[in-house]
Amino acid sequence: MLTAVLKGVAVRSSAPPPVLPPAAPHHGLRWSLLCAAGLLVLGLLAGAMQLPLSWLAAAVGAGLLLSGLVAGVSALLRSLSRGVLLRRISAVYEFDSAAAFLTDTGGEVIWLNAAARSRYPFTDTPQLSAALTDYAAHPSAVIRRLSARALAEGVTGEDVVTRAGVLRLQVIRCRRSALLWRFDLFLERSSLARGSEGISLPMLMAGRSGAVLYANKALRDLTGGRPRTLEELIPGPSVGSGGIIALNAISGPVQAVMIEVDGAAERREIYFLPLSSLPAIASLQGLEDLPLALLRLGSDGTILASNTEAQQMLRLTPGEEINASALLDGPGRPLRDWIADVAAHRAPARTETLRLLRASSPDSFVRLTLRPWGEAARNGLLALLVDATEIRSLQAQFTQSQKMQLVGQLAGGVAHDFNNLLTAISGHCDLLLLNHDALDPEYADLSQIRQNANRAAGLVSQLLAFSRKQTLHAEYLYLQDVVRDMTQLLSRLVGEKIRLDVSHEHGPTLIRADRRQLEQVLMNLVVNARDAMRAEGEIRIRSARADFEFARPMGEVSLPAGAYAVLTVSDEGPGISPQALEKIFEPFFTTKPAGEGTGLGLSTAYGIVKQSGGFIFVQNAASGGAEFSVYLPIHDRETIDIPVTPQIRPQASLPLVREGVILLVEDEAPVRAFAARALRLRGYTVMEAEDGQDALELLSDPALDVRLFISDVIMQGLEGPAWVRIAREQRPEVPVIFISGYAAETFFDVLADMPRVNFLAKPFSLADLNVAVGAALSDQEDRLS
């Protein structure tokens, strides 16, 4: 039955039909039992009136019939499930250049792609072990080992150095009983020999672990055989491409220039240019087709000869008379001067990274190594070029990540200091407002101060969002509900000339995020789209669901397998230039004219999405304009416990601690003054301390009845968590409220093991402080009662 279902799938596919195992014998037996049970029931029911015992037999037959039906339906469902899996695998891997097999856990092949069918023409029922016979002495052992690892870890792989070559095996668990295998034969010695055996330069192929996979005839003759490892061949310290090393030759150490050609990630392709052969090599005769770019340069930089690889890299025409300085951008000084200095032995012959001037991309680089010989002023120099574009790109990415990290740390520190100032400003403003009613002339001025302090707090929040150090109040919510609630506000935001098209391509998708921050992300993306169009047009907001059974590459990021809620915002503007796309999420980067943008909108959105465990991407849509996509993990409503938000009693009913003391520890005097006065107005008795050491001295009095600690986290000397731990050795039941301008997530590791801890983020208002204190004391009363 499984065979029939899978064959039906194959017929509908344009690819050749997959090879499938025959139906298992127990399927036929199951249906035979089913038929026999049906006949037994019919026969016995017919004579039931004459033989009372037949009713029992009829019941037994009915049970057999029901069991057979259940087993048959179960087998059908399994077959259909496998059919769905086969269609998905075929759509992705049918035309993969590597051989791909779908097998059960025993290695029996269920499906194989076109590459596997052409490379491994099975005659009987295909077994994976038959495909591995040419590569491994014990294929069954390899299959068992990798199958066990894949079933346990989800994905695994290894390189197998075999008699026929080097085979990369990758195994992916698709279901509990199905595995996907990829065989990538990235090095066949026979084909390699055809290309490199006749080269006069010694060369080898090595794995990333240093094992030598292949050595050509020139290297074998030089060393007396094939070395087993690079360390055996080059015993000295490791050097980069272009460096001089000492080869362990059969006649003794041989000085040579080591050149590594960028190849597949699984192997290293290395050539050795003996220094003694440089004059002969410089003519480039016989080296035209070497996969290594070589130039012969005059002492003034004129290109005297070039091989095919160099001509392709530099976009030279054969016989073209040109100076290297017209093709390569110099290393901080004119290239002619550097070449002349090396030729005259005034400068060392080191390797430099240069920019290609004739390349299609302005960010194309090569590493150039110059080697003079003899009288270099007369003979010239040999130039070796290696593509360094990818290395330079990785260096730029690393530098950028460091810069972003430093900016993030700076943003977090600045936000912390501003939050202290804003706490004092807004707090004392709240205290003044207590003494003025709405009709008071000063009430409007105080309200303006309060509102602008809140606006400043919003800007600080954006800095913290960029640095991913803000406090997120994550909750379970439906993405579609957030978009619907924001639609009216966004419509007013974009204006009358721009249309807002909102659609939902899937039912409700449950995510976990800070609602306020998610609204900020949506607003920032819509504002960015509005500003990009400048005139009439349409902004499209889409919510959808994306399910990835396997990890999905998205540019330089790989999305893990799983279900995602997707929020897409696209516009009809001119799009984003390739140069701007690389920097679009950097802080303070903006494509708007001077004075029209802060450069924080998209970097803030990026920080919020990443802190929420999601991903954000940008691309230019095919129809024009830019398209931003946010991916947030979907949560299953039936498998999670959505916490109930605790109900805080109204402020009027919050308890007043008239018999106990609140210990307030804060090193910022304005913040401490506001908090202390606010608590005293509520009837609390407050003792103040500037730091942790002062707090411990106050607590040394055993008669002091302290009901609550309120402490800053970061202070000089003893920090908040440190002094609280010491104090709780004698007062273990006292709750604590930590306050800080940094986010709570910053201190998660420090506070995770501390019981009865609450966190209040700065800047906080008078009401925020009263509610936090009342809630902490209410919890303590409930525990003690």
- The global form is globular
Q: What is the CATH topology classification name of the largest domain?
A: Beta-Lactamase
Protein structure class: alpha+beta
Strand order of the largest sheet: 12-11-16-15-14-13
Strand percentage: 15-25%
**How many extended strands?**
30
Q: Could you state the CATH homologous superfamily of the largest domain? A: PAS domain
* Poorly predicted segments: 1-29, 73-77, 188-194, 644-655
Largest sheet: number of strands, sense, barrel closure: 6 strands, antiparallel
Whole-Å distance between the termini? 67 Å
Helix content: 40-55%
Pfam families: HATPase_c, HisKA, Response_reg
Keywords: Membrane, Phosphoprotein, Transmembrane, Transmembrane helix
InterPro entries: CheY-like_superfamily, HATPase_C_sf, HATPase_dom, His_kinase_dom, HisK_dim/P_dom, HisK_dim/P_sf, Sig_transdc_His_kin-like_C, Sig_transdc_resp-reg_receiver
Modified residues (4-aspartylphosphate): 712
What does this structure look like?
The protein is built from 24 helices and 30 strands. It has 785 residues and is α+β, with helices and mostly antiparallel strands. It has four domains: 2-180, PAS domain (Beta-Lactamase, 2-Layer Sandwich); 191-391, PAS domain (Beta-Lactamase, 2-Layer Sandwich); 475-633, 2-Layer Sandwich (Heat Shock Protein 90), CATH 3.30.565.10; 651-784, Rossmann fold. The strands form seven sheets. It has a six-stranded antiparallel beta sheet with strand order 12-11-16-15-14-13. The protein has a five-stranded antiparallel beta sheet with strand order 2-1-5-4-3, sandwiched between helices. A five-stranded antiparallel beta sheet has the order 7-6-10-9-8. Helix 2 (25-46) runs antiparallel to helix 3, helix 17 packs antiparallel against helix 19 and helix 21 (692-699) packs parallel to helix 22. The radius of gyration is 37 Å and the shape is globular. It starts with a helix and ends with a helix. Residues 1-29, 73-77, 188-194 and 644-655 have low confidence and may be disordered.
